[in-house]
Design a protein that fits this description.
Elements lengths: L1 E6 L4 H11 L5 E4 L1 H7 L1 H10 L4 E8 L3 H11 L3 E5 L4 H14 L2 E5 L6 H10 L4 E5 L2 H4 L6 H10 L4 E5 L7 H6 L4 E4 L1 H4 L4 H13 L1
Parallel strand pairs: 1-2, 1-8, 2-3, 3-4, 4-5, 5-6, 6-7, 7-8
Helix pairs in contact: 4-5, 6-8
The protein binds the ligand O=C([C@H](O)CO)[C@H](O)[C@H](O)COP(=O)(O)O.
Keywords: Carbohydrate metabolism, Lyase, One-carbon metabolism
Catalytic activity: D-ribulose 5-phosphate + formaldehyde = D-arabino-hex-3-ulose 6-phosphate
Protein name: 3-hexulose-6-phosphate synthase
Length: 209
């Protein structure tokens, strides 16, 4: 299992400094949605320049203009970007077209998909092979976690690479590992920890255990 660090509510400078300190524990640096709103494509470019050996994911959460928006992320240096799974299937297909053009990949975010039983087969039939099981921060605030959705998507998916996000920390990561995630995404669990470097180290140790 790989570890993806989501950089959301942090300045570009602090994120680059943190990246330097935790890079040995992290496989994928995620340019979070708020981070992209604040810094634009510059964040993607800077991270790729400073950490060329790491994968960079742009959490673009695309809902329209799939090919154009995904193309912007890939041209800036992202290896992956995200599209919202409940948007129109045409947009998903346009994102996949851009991914093929740039030889990169698209993660489809499951946030707020009500009927996963119906949607996951539709997405995979359209060519999706990377799925990000996600419970957002607002739903986390009322106690939701992504564990049930991960188990459900794992049983429905044919062969997609699965990442999982939603309030995961060092003391809960084992559950997600056991439930078949290929990538665990951690934002607050590292960024908001008392000691971010120690939190990243603990997560990496548990993942590689
Ligand atoms: O995608 C995210 C969220 O929608 C804010 O943009 C987060 O990056 C993702 O949820 C991971 O962060 P944590 O839930 O804090 O681990």
């Amino acid at each position: 299992m790989k570890l993806q660090l989501a950089l959301d509510d942090i300045s570009l400078k602090d994120a680059l400094d943190l990246g330097e300190k935790v890079k040995n524990y992290i496989d994928i640096f995620e340019m979070g949605s708020p981070f992209i709103i604040e810094n634009g494509s510059l964040a993607i470019k800077e991270f790729k320049r400073r950490f060329p050996e790491k994968k960079i994911l742009a959490d673009t959460k695309i809902v329209d203009a799939g090919s154009y928006e995904a193309g912007l992320a890939f041209k800036a240096g992202a290896d992956y970007c995200t599209v919202i799974g409940l948007t129109d299937i045409l947009t998903i297909k346009e994102c996949l077209k851009a991914a093929r053009k740039y030889n990169k990949s698209i993660f489809v975010d499951t946030i707020n998909i009500e009927n996963l039983n119906k949607r996951i087969p539709e997405l995979e039939a359209a060519g999706v092979d990377h799925i990000s099981v996600h419970v957002g921060v607002d739903e986390q605030a009322v106690g939701k976690t992504p564990i049930d959705a991960l188990r459900q998507v794992k049983s429905l998916s044919n062969n997609s690479i699965l990442s999982v996000a939603g309030g995961i920390k060092a003391d809960t990561v084992d559950l997600y590992k056991k439930s078949g995630a290929d990538i665990v995404i951690v934002g607050g669990g590292i960024n908001h920890a008392k000691n971010s470097v120690l939190a990243a180290k603990k997560l990496a140790e548990k993942i590689n255990d």
